[in-house]
Amino acid sequence: MSNIVEITNLKKSYKGGFEALKGVSLNIREGEILALLGPNGAGKTTLISTVCGITTATSGSVTVGGHDILSDYRAARSMIGLVPQEINLEPFEKVINSVRFSRGLFGKPSDDAAIEHVLRQLSLWDKKDNQIRELSGGMKRRVLIAKALAHDPRVLFLDEPTAGVDVELRKDMWDVVANLKADGVTIILTTHYIEEAEAIADRVGVIAKGELMLVEDKDTLMARMGQKELEVQLTQTLSEVPESLRSDTLRLSDDGTALIYTYDTRAERTGITKLLANVAKAGLTLRDLVTRQSSLEEIFVNLVHEGDETSGAEDAA
């Protein structure tokens, strides 16, 4: 699969020395959904703004479809659609006119069939003659996406597209994104909702303090970094882990009715067989066994925590 966006050693510094981006390099594959995860202030919006030409990088380079965003700005920008975080729409404008206007901004000829396709794709066709002010928050988000797609871009940036919407609308938006991918659009999604990345992304990137900590296929990331927990539920209640069972990978549940064993799914041996034998030797009786996979959220938190520890160690040095 070819790369449609190539970002090389991108840096952005502001007056006073603050570094919003610290040498970010990232290749985005054509036709994929890439989720960029990071806490507020991590650099997600700065990265998107730089690629879209809203912010100028201090150094580094970006190409979109082979076009440099500085030396070949018009060609690069014509391939990009951007859906910002904020809903900034003309409240008294009709939906269809708002989308037509966005198409015209890119010098595209009038094409009612193309506008109809976009509006139908986003379930907005029956709202085409409504004024923006008459729409719900979720529908306004869809109008933002329609405006971003009006000039037929090949790359769509969604900056926190479900921020501030309820769970039902969020899942509805996930369906919209999946349909756009099926239509051949490459999608870069920034979010701090872990379940969003887990639900729809092909790859996940983690950004913290202006640095891209990793980018991996979502399933590979889960398998590589995820740990499993085995909950050994007991018929008796314990006040502490028996001395014969104590280890760094075993802890007692809060209510004292289960032993929680953490193990690496990549290891040749999980140690579960030995654990169960030792539990029996300790005179404990099993009631049930339950396994649980680490979530992407836990992996993300651990990565950011590790980054903070590394940064702290470097500062101390």
UniProtKB/TrEMBL annotation:
Keywords carried by this UniProt record: ATP-binding, Nucleotide-binding, Transport
UniProt keyword Transmembrane helix, yes or no: no
A GO MF label: ATP hydrolysis activity
One matching Pfam family: ABC_tran
Annotated ranges, domain ABC transporter: 5-234
InterPro entries in the cross-refs: AAA+_ATPase, ABC_transporter-like_ATP-bd, ABC_transporter-like_CS, ABC_transporter_ATP-binding, P-loop_NTPase
Name the UniProt record assigns to this protein: ABC-2 type transport system ATP-binding protein
Phylogenetic classification of the source organism: Bacteria, Pseudomonadati, Pseudomonadota, Alphaproteobacteria, Rhodobacterales
